[in-house]
Write a structure and sequence with these properties.
By secondary structure, the chain is mainly beta. It has 2 helices and 49 strands. It has a 41-stranded mixed beta sheet that branches. The chain has a 4-stranded antiparallel beta sheet with strand order 45-44-47-48, with no helix packed on it. It starts with 11 loop residues before the first helix and ends in a 13-residue tail after the last strand.
Amino acid sequence: MNSINRFAVISAAMVLSAAALTGCGNTAADNTGSGSAVSEAYAAASTEKAQETVGESAVLLAKYSEKSADYDEQNAVKISFDESGAAIDGQGAAYTDGTVTISAGGEYIISGITSNGRIAVNCSEDENVRLILDNADISCGDGPALLVTSAKNVYLILKDGTDNKLSDSASYTDGDNLDGCIFSKADLIICGGGTLNVNGNYKHGIVSKDDLAVIGGTLNVTAASSGICGKDLVEIDGGSISVTAGNDGIKSTNTEDADKGNIIIGGGNITVVSEDNCISSAAALDISGGVLDLTAGGGYVNAEPRTGGENGGKGGFFGGERPEGNGGDVGFRKHDKMTENGEFTPPEGMPEMNGEMPEMSGDMQDLSLVPGDDTATDAAGQASAETSEESSAPKGIKAETYLTVSGGELTIDAAGDGIHSNGNVTVSGGTVNAAAGSQGIHADSAFLITDGDIIISESFEGIEAKTITVNGGNISAVSSDDGFNGTDGSGSMNMFESEDGVYIEINGGVTELNAGGDGIDSNGAFYLKGGEVYVSGPTNSGNGSLDCNGTAEVSGGVIIACGAAGMAQGFGSGSAQYSVVHTVGTSVAAGEELTVSDSEGNVILSHTFSKEWQNIIFSSPDIEEGETYTISAGNMSETVNVDGIVTSNSSGSGKGFGRMK
């Protein structure tokens, strides 16, 4: 879901209409079809697309890496700069007014120091040029230090053991839309074993209006705007890259051609510190290797102020992602009022509720509640739409179409989303460590993990997408609001309406969520078919460990979810595996080991939770009807007899009653 401000006022009509609902498995908009067919179809399509990207990466890598960094030093043209000009030994290059212009394909070794010089490449479009930097230090006072206007491929080779520097000035006199210290209209390939320091004082550090590949060398880029820009492609498969940028760190820009604008990372050590997005692709982004250390917008500590579930946030009773201005109560609109005893005073024009909820009929343990809206109705009854545009907060990694991670080690610290795709996100390997001021991982469409490790240490919401599918791998997420949030971002005005096509499905792997808001929050359906799921939180009774608007079914796997009791919600009666929703008599402190034992004392479930809790939801293939189970933690010990597919003693507001998304 795009980052959305959601503020809402509960109307008595909405509250009363909850009594007309039946169960989580019986709502009108069930999102039936079990989700598996949709999930498997998506998984197949996503895997195929990922393989296409990896295949493209292999082809491009072969295209560039087969052109090794070797060169014939004896026969290469020698160019040596000094403050008085440049000496040229060989054919194909000429010096005029501070600029060495290369007009023929071949190999050119460049050395020396100048405070006002330039290398220009202008040869036939079918000729390859190799520029070997040999302790070159070139600054240009009126434009790019390296300018390629025409060539087939330009190989920028950093001679082993050398230290090179290219710098431009803070202003340009040259036109032709030049905006980078290194500016190329041809494919640019950087390789070798030396070091290159690039200072983009005007705007960008390195710009290619075609393909840009880095396959070796040590590259340090500092730029007033973006660091490394490739219009059609950015490929990194080796070397050590460090970027400090006043805008995006590494980006592609082609939005016109369907097969271009991609970023492919297969190796290398990459460090990016950027004011905006660290890595931003105009199309697809594929990461299959490398070590990435990314800091966007100063990190998650610089996130935009917003309220989480612990403060009555988006997943809570009166939620909103950000507080209303004018010093209003956090998480509430300024016309919402609540007494010290937790009683709600409705806005002017709404009926008084006298501090009590209306009497509800029906099976509240099987009641499905639907998230609310993206608009807020003020006291005069006028709807004021909150923005639904994507947050501009800097992101660690962003892709416009789809994003795949199949390998590598990613460490991300972002003021906005850690990983963001306006399409799909697929993780099939590698390790992702993210701290994010917004979503740890966000996909407008689908999120899928089949393997790999995802550790989200800080986030507003852990993982958010229209569909969330966990088929394998390991996920650990800490969030101030929802752990998993399944939503299409539409923000229906009907808070009891299930969003079509939205689901969360867990078939394998290990998922552990530590949530301040809802642990698992699906605005559509939720299916647990396999794997292990552990949910700690919330402690706020305006949220629940589970919150589902459509069908909620368990047919396999293990789940233990411990949190507050006020909005306790369990699985529906259409489940194929037994489950229990149980509120204990006294709260259990954080850090106490929980065990669930059968009548013979065998422990069938155990976990230690990081938050205080009073309600437990659990299910396992080992649970049987007619069996008595003992729930123990610290000094607390209570028994429960399983008497049906869903067993519950909870007196909470059931299935997320009155929840606002």
